[in-house]
Write a structure and sequence with these properties.
Elements: H1 2-13, H2 41-51, E1 56-58, E2 66-69, H3 71-74, E3 92-96, E4 104-108, E5 111-112, E6 116-120, E7 123-125, E8 143-150, E9 164-170, E10 179-186, E11 190-201, E12 205-216, E13 232-245, E14 251-266, E15 269-271, E16 274-276, H4 280-285, E17 299-316, E18 323-340, E19 343-361, E20 366-389, E21 392-396, E22 402-419, E23 423-434, E24 444-454, E25 460-472, H5 475-478, E26 488-491, E27 498-511, E28 521-533, E29 535-538, E30 545-550, E31 556-570, E32 573-588, E33 592-595, E34 602-611, E35 617-626, E36 642-644, E37 647-649, E38 653-664, E39 667-674, E40 709-718
Parallel strand pairs: 6-9, 26-30
Antiparallel strand pairs: 1-2, 2-8, 3-4, 4-5, 6-7, 8-9, 10-11, 10-40, 11-12, 12-13, 13-14, 14-17, 15-16, 17-18, 18-19, 19-20, 20-21, 20-22, 22-23, 23-24, 24-25, 25-27, 27-28, 28-31, 29-30, 31-32, 32-33, 32-34, 34-35, 35-38, 36-37, 38-39, 39-40
C-alpha cells in the first residue's frame, strides 16, 4: 500500500493542463454544478457576500444555525490551512494537541473536534487516523467557503454528528479561473505554496487540479527549553476533481487526492556547531543515556500518507428535477508511522462511506428524502510503549499487529415542511446497526433529529434543533497528545467504545434596519450537549498515569452561549463582534462533578475590515480575548497559573492579528502579523529536562506556543477571457 501511494502521487503530478469553454447547457446558460443534487443556496450566499468583502456571516436562509466563512474571510489572514481559518470565529476554538507534534484540534460547543462531523462537500472526512493532522491537510486557498452548523443536523450524512458539522466547499471545476497561484512565507521560515486550475473541456466535462507544498527550513526554539517550538515538516498535497454534466441533467463527480506529510519534533541540542535532533533508531537502542547534550534527544518522528477517492452520481427522475436519486461513495486509506521516544505507533486505516438517497419534492411545502448509508473502518495497529520508572523499563502493548473492524449501517428518512417563508420544519429519523459493541449492549440504535425555523416577521429568525449522535472512539488517536508524555496508560486505551450524546439548542437572530448594508444583525444562541456514554481520558486520578475509562452513566455535559453582532457602519467597512461562554462539567472518578480540564471558559472576537474604493486596499484587524481554563492539579505553581477555590486556572490572554492587502489587476499582495501581543504559554513542556520520568508532559497546552509571526505573500488569478 505504501508503494501504491507513491505511485499514485507521481501519476497525479503529470496531469495535463488543458482548457476550453465554460460548462453550458444546450441553451447557452451556465450550469449550476455546486451540488450533486438539489439547490446550494449557501454557496450562492457565499458568492454574494464575497463581493461585499464580508468574511463571516450568519446564513439567513438556512434552517439550522449556520455561520459561513467566505472566500474573502479565508483571505483575511495567511490562512495556510483549515486550522488557521477560524481565528475570526468564536464558534470554533483552535489549539494545539501538544507542544511536540504540531497537531491542531478544534473545539465546537466546548467539546473536542472529534465530536464535530467534518464534511468535504457532504462526504464525512478526517475520521480516525486522519483526525489529528487533518486540519493541516486542507489548504485555505483550496476552499470557496466553510459552513459551520451548530447542533444536531441532518440525518442524511450519517450518525456521527454530535456538536455540529463543518462543511468545506472546494474550488469548483466550473470556476472561471484557469490558473490561481498563492505563495506565502512566515518569519519562522514556514513556506506555503498553492496552485489551482479549473479547466473546461466542452460543456459536459470540467476538472479542477489543486496542488499544495508547505514546510519549514529552519528550527526555532524561542524560549530556550531545548524543544522545537514547531516541528520540522514537509507536506505534499495533490487533488484532482472532475465533473460530467449530461444533457438530461445527470451529474457525475469524482476525484482523487494524495497526501504525504513528514514531521519531526522534540528536543534539539547543539554539538560541534551542528543541530542534533531526535533519532528514533538511536533512541530506541539506548534511551537510558538520554541527557541534555547527548546525541540521543527525545522527540517525535511522524510520517503520514493517505490516498482518497470519491464518486458522486445524481440522476433526475423527471424534467422538473423534483424527484431524483443520488449515490455518494468515498474510500480513504490513511497510514501513520509514528515514533515518540522509545514508543512506536504504526497504524493503517481503510475507510469506506456509501450513501444512497431518493429525494422527492412533492410541492413547495412538502419534501422527503429516504436512503441508506454506512461507514466501515479497518484498523491495523502495532503499538509498543516503553516508559521508565526510576530508570526501570516497562513495556505497554504487545507490539503485535492488531486488526479492528468497526462498521455501522443505517436506514434513514427525512421530511421537510415549508409554510412559505415564515415556518419550516425538518424531522429526521435513522436506525443504525453497529458491529462492535459489548454483548450486553444493543447493536441497533435509533437516532431522531428535529430542526425548526420560524420567522414571525422578516427581521427576526428563530431556530431550534436537537437530536442524538453516535461514534466509535479511537482513544489514542483522538488524544494524540498522550504520546508526548512519560506517563503510564491504564484502562481502556485500546478499546473502541460507542460514544453516545444528545444535543439540543436554539438561536434567535434580529436583522436591524440600519447600517450601509442589510448585513446588520444581533444573534444569540444556546446549545447543550449531554453524554450518555463517553470515553474519559483522566490525567488526575494518578499524576504518574493516564487513565482511560467509560463514563458509564455518570454526568458529562457542556452548556454553550454565544452572542454575535455585525454591522457595516459605512460602505466597505464591516465590524463583527462575537462572544462565547462555555460551562463544561464532567464527573471524574473519585472527584465528582468538576469543570472539564483544559476547556476555555470564554472567548471574545472583534474583527474590523475596511476596503478602499474598488477594493484596491483592504485592511483587516482581529482582536480576541481568551478566557481561563481549569488546568490539571499537577500544573500548580507554573508561570501564569492561579488558584481559585482549591482549583487551578490558566490566565486570560489577548491575541491580535493584522493584515494589509494591495490588489492589482490579477494580483494581490498581502502582508501581516499574528499574535502581535507576543503572548505565549510559558514553559509548555513539563519536566522536559528528563523525558524518562512520569512527570514529563508536553500535552498540557492552554495557550499559544509561538510568539509574534509576520508573513508576506501574493495571490495571482488568471481569469478566463
Amino acid at each position: 500500500m505504501k508503494k501504491l501511494l507513491s505511485v499514485i502521487s507521481c501519476a497525479l503530478c503529470v496531469c495535463a493542463f488543458t482548457a476550453n469553454a465554460q460548462v453550458l447547457d444546450s441553451k447557452g446558460n451556465l450550469i449550476d454544478t455546486t451540488a450533486i443534487y438539489g439547490e446550494r443556496s449557501d454557496s450562492l450566499d457565499a458568492a454574494v457576500f464575497t463581493s461585499r468583502q464580508s468574511g463571516n456571516y450568519l446564513s439567513k436562509g438556512k434552517e439550522i444555525r449556520t455561520e459561513v466563512i467566505t472566500a474573502a474571510g479565508l483571505c483575511k489572514m495567511a490562512c495556510c490551512n483549515l486550522a488557521e481559518s477560524f481565528e475570526n470565529s468564536a464558534s470554533v476554538t483552535v489549539g494545539y494537541s501538544d507542544a511536540v507534534t504540531g497537531a491542531r484540534q478544534i473545539r465546537l460547543l466546548g467539546l473536542s473536534g472529534v465530536y464535530t462531523q467534518m464534511l468535504d462537500e457532504t462526504r464525512p472526512v478526517m475520521r480516525g487516523l486522519a483526525s489529528p493532522f487533518g486540519l493541516s491537510y486542507v489548504p485555505g486557498q483550496w476552499l470557496e467557503s466553510i459552513q459551520i452548523a451548530k447542533g444536531s443536523s441532518s440525518v442524511i450524512n450519517g450518525v456521527e454528528c454530535m456538536t455540529g458539522q463543518i462543511n468545506m466547499e472546494h474550488r469548483k471545476p466550473t470556476d472561471e479561473k484557469p490558473l490561481f497561484l498563492n505563495a506565502a512565507v512566515m518569519s519562522d521560515t514556514k513556506m506555503d505554496f498553492n496552485i489551482a486550475s479549473s479547466l473546461q473541456m466542452g460543456y459536459k466535462w470540467s476538472t479542477v487540479i489543486l496542488g499544495h507544498v508547505s514546510g519549514n527550513i529552519a528550527p526555532h526554539d524561542m524560549n530556550g527549553d531545548h524543544f522545537l517550538d514547531d516541528p520540522m515538516m514537509l507536506q505534499l498535497n495533490l487533488s484532482n476533481r472532475w465533473l460530467y454534466q449530461a444533457d438530461n441533467g445527470m451529474q457525475i463527480r469524482f476525484g482523487v487526492r494524495a497526501i504525504q506529510d513528514s514531521r519531526q519534533g522534540g528536543q534539539m541540542f547543539e554539538k560541534d556547531g551542528k543541530h542534533v535532533y531526535f533519532d528514533r533508531d538511536a533512541y530506541q537502542w539506548n534511551p537510558l543515556e538520554v541527557q541534555p547534550g547527548t546525541l540521543n534527544p527525545w522527540g517525535s518522528d511522524i510520517l503520514n500518507r493517505s490516498i482518497n477517492g470519491y464518486f458522486k452520481l445524481g440522476v433526475p427522475l423527471n424534467e422538473e428535477n423534483s424527484q431524483n436519486i443520488a449515490l455518494v461513495a468515498d474510500y480513504n486509506y490513511q497510514n501513520m508511522d509514528s515514533y515518540f521516544g522509545a514508543t512506536k505507533y504504526l497504524a493503517g486505516q481503510h475507510s469506506a462511506f456509501a450513501n444512497l438517497l431518493y429525494q422527492n419534492e412533492i410541492n413547495e411545502s412538502h419534501k422527503f428524502t429516504l436512503g441508506l448509508n454506512g461507514t466501515w473502518d479497518l484498523y491495523d495497529e502495532a503499538f509498543e510503549r516503553v516508559i521508565f520508572y526510576n530508570l526501570m523499563k516497562d513495556v505497554e502493548g504487545t507490539g503485535l499487529p492488531v486488526r479492528t473492524d468497526l462498521a455501522n449501517a443505517g436506514l434513514f428518512g427525512e421530511y421537510t415542511f415549508h409554510a412559505g417563508e415564515e415556518f419550516s420544519a425538518i424531522v429526521g429519523l435513522r436506525g443504525d446497526w453497529f458491529n462492535h459493541v459489548p454483548s450486553d449492549e444493543a447493536r441497533f440504535r435509533v437516532s431522531p433529529r428535529v430542526t425548526l425555523k420560524y420567522m414571525p416577521i422578516e427581521e427576526i429568525v428563530i431556530r431550534a434543533n436537537g437530536g442524538r449522535g453516535l461514534r466509535y472512539s479511537t482513544p489514542l488517536v483522538d488524544n494524540i497528545g498522550v504520546f508526548s508524555t512519560g506517563k503510564k496508560y491504564v484502562g481502556s486505551f485500546n478499546e473502541h467504545i460507542l460514544e453516545d450524546a444528545w444535543t439540543f439548542g436554539g438561536n434567535i437572530t434580529y436583522y436591524m434596519p440600519f447600517g450601509a448594508s442589510s448585513n446588520t444583525y444581533l444573534s444569540f444562541d444556546y446549545f447543550r450537549t449531554q453524554f450518555v456514554q463517553q470515553m474519559v481520558v483522566d490525567y488526575e486520578l494518578d499524576p504518574t498515569q493516564i487513565n482511560f475509562y467509560a463514563l458509564n452513566g455518570k454526568q458529562s455535559f457542556t452548556d454553550n452561549f454565544q452572542l454575535d453582532f455585525s454591522v457595516d457602519p459605512i460602505e466597505r467597512f464591516n465590524i463583527t463582534a462575537t462572544f462565547r461562554y462555555t460551562n463544561a462539567k464532567i464527573d471524574l472518578a473519585g472527584r465528582g462533578l468538576v469543570d472539564k480540564p483544559m476547556t476555555s471558559r470564554f472567548k471574545g472576537v472583534l474583527n474590523l475590515q475596511y476596503a478602499t474604493n474598488l477594493n484596491k486596499w483592504i485592511f483587516d484587524f482581529t482582536a480576541s480575548v481568551n478566557g481561563p481554563c481549569r488546568v490539571y492539579d499537577f500544573m500548580k505553581g507554573m508561570d501564569g497559573i492561579t488558584e481559585r477555590n482549591g482549583k487551578y486556572y490558566s490566565p486570560v490572554y489577548p491575541l491580535l492579528y493584522a493584515q494589509i492587502t494591495r490588489r492589482f489587476k490579477g494580483w494581490d499582495v498581502y502582508m501581516g502579523a499574528e499574535n502581535l501581543t507576543n503572548f505565549t504559554q510559558k514553559n509548555p513542556i513539563i519536566g522536559g529536562d528528563n523525558p524518562l520520568q512520569p512527570s514529563f508532559d508536553a500535552s498540557c497546552i492552554w495557550g499559544p506556543l509561538m510568539g509574534i509571526k509576520a508573513h508576506i505573500g501574493f495571490r495571482f488569478t488568471l481569469w478566463k477571457k
